[in-house]
Design a protein that fits this description.
About 45% of the residues lie in helices and about 15% in strands. With about 325 residues, it is an alpha/beta fold. The relative contact order is 0.15.
Length: about 325
């Protein structure tokens, strides 16, 4: 099939640069955030964006949707949102011959890019409606399995769990996100530029620079980047060392971590590192690539214990210390 044909490394970088250029026409600053979102997009993974309201999380996702020739839909998560509002439901219709039949009416999840806005403001029952879609690429309604379009990306935003009216996502659902990306507050210069752009209401019409087939080909290209066995071993040792019962776990892990990262963490680190190397114009993966992607890949996959909460230790701090403690070669 045409969608499985790989791009050359040069064509990959050219297309990635074109997509990033369109995003930067709207989004001010946030270069690391944009870069990490694109890595996840090219990997075919889902992204969880966290930050206080007003930092442009929704606008970033909308901009990506506008810059790609892909079907885009937005779901605003609220406490009264029901699972069927996301997946769709069977409705009773009358056929041409007068018979009454049930037909499936697809929900907004049937799209290439789904913006799940403020996902942690919905109840756990509704949050779980995305689990099958994110993992299997399907939706099951009344024992009928419906295939979602390809490619399929969930770009979810959430407010910090300490804010009022939020429901923390369960570990099983967090693990299905390729990256969890923290959106920082802009600098003074960036904030001034944001104010100028928004107050002047300068509408920017983005060019649609890539279609579904191209995005799929970019994903196939990234997977073929070579990685040395020693570098792969480093990624595996990072994940193994995140488990407190592992012999090579640093003292910080033993003290503050209840459960370490899942195997998906290792898969995410390796694939993201491959794409980072490709975007940087290098022919293979380095140790620095592994360290650079470890934070967004693991910060949501490590479950801390009560001691960590009592001492105000974050998973971000734990992952940073983990990458410092685990050496490049051997324990």
């Amino acid at each position: 099939m045409a969608t499985s044909i790989q791009l050359s490394p040069h064509d990959f970088r050219e297309m990635a640069a074109a997509i990033q250029h369109e995003i930067e026409r709207v989004i001010v600053g946030q270069k690391d955030v944009v870069s990490e979102v694109l890595i996840a997009l090219f990997a075919g993974g889902h992204v969880l964006l966290e930050g206080v309201p007003g930092l442009g999380k929704t606008r970033l996702v909308r901009t990506i949707g506008d810059g790609l020739d892909l079907a885009f839909s937005r779901i605003q998560f609220t406490p009264d949102l029901m699972p069927a509002d996301i997946t769709g439901t069977n409705i009773l219709n009358e056929s041409e011959d007068g018979r009454r039949i049930f037909t499936f009416e697809p929900g907004p999840v049937f799209s290439n890019i789904v913006l799940a806005d403020e996902i942690n403001r919905a109840t756990p029952k509704t949050q779980s409606a995305l689990l099958e879609a994110m993992q299997e690429g399907t939706v099951t309604v009344a024992n009928h399995v419906h295939q979602l379009p390809k490619p399929f990306f969930v770009l979810a935003t959430q407010n910090p769990v300490e804010m009022e009216g939020t429901y923390p996502l369960p570990e099983a659902q967090l693990d299905r996100f390729f990256f969890k990306i923290i959106v920082p507050f802009p600098s003074a210069e960036e904030l001034a530029e944001i104010v100028v752009r928004t107050v002047n209401q300068d509408d920017v019409e983005l060019n649609r620079v890539a279609e579904a087939a191209t995005v799929s080909r970019m994903a196939a290209t990234g997977r073929q980047v070579p990685i040395a066995h020693s570098v792969l071993d480093y990624a595996v040792r990072l994940v193994m060392a995140s488990h407190p019962d592992n012999a090579g776990a640093p003292g910080l892990i033993r003290q503050y971590v209840r459960y370490g990262a899942s195997p998906r963490g290792a898969q995410t680190i390796v694939l993201a590192a491959k794409l980072r190397a490709l975007l940087d114009g290098r022919p293979n993966v380095s140790y620095d690539d592994i360290r650079a992607v470890a934070l967004p890949a693991l910060r949501h996959r490590i479950v801390l214990n009560f001691d960590a909460e009592a001492n105000d230790i974050s998973s971000e701090h734990v992952v940073r210390r983990l990458t410092e403690a685990v050496p490049d070669s051997g324990f």
